[in-house]
Write a structure and sequence with these properties.
Elements lengths: L2 H6 L2 E2 L2 E2 L3 H10 L10 H24 L3 H6 L5 E5 L2 E4 L19 H8 L1
Helix pairs in contact: 2-5
């Protein structure tokens, strides 16, 4: 077992966690790929939610002629971080249809293994 695994307490019942190689890859490379973590349908559902929210927010910004304020300070729901890059508040992402992104996310054990 690697020193990193021992240091992070990655042992489960005296045996190495099956997630250990991915957690070590994360530490070594700064990223790792969790196989079969999210389906194409789930990606599409999340993508549509983000796109719809972005369009709603930008429509309100344009309708109220608030482009300069968006660039200067932003709003609670949307903030411009850089040209073409926005942070969005998406409360709908915390509803049951999106549970696959949080508590039920198949990658959460990997996150917990990597981050403790």
């Amino acid at each position: 077992v690697s020193l990193a695994a021992e240091r992070q307490g990655r042992l489960v019942g005296g045996a190495a966690s099956p997630l250990l190689p991915l957690a070590e890859e994360f530490y070594r490379e700064g990223m790792c790929v969790a196989p079969s973590a999210i389906s194409a349908e789930q990606v599409e559902l999340a993508s549509l939610a983000v796109s719809d929210a972005y369009e709603r927010y930008m429509h309100a910004v344009r309708t109220l002629d608030l482009q300069e304020k968006l660039q200067a300070v932003g709003f609670m729901e949307i903030k411009m971080r850089n040209a073409g890059r926005y942070d969005l508040q998406l409360p709908e992402m915390f509803s049951e249809p999106f549970a696959f992104l949080f508590d039920q996310a198949p990658w959460m054990p990997l996150v917990k293994a990597a981050l403790g």
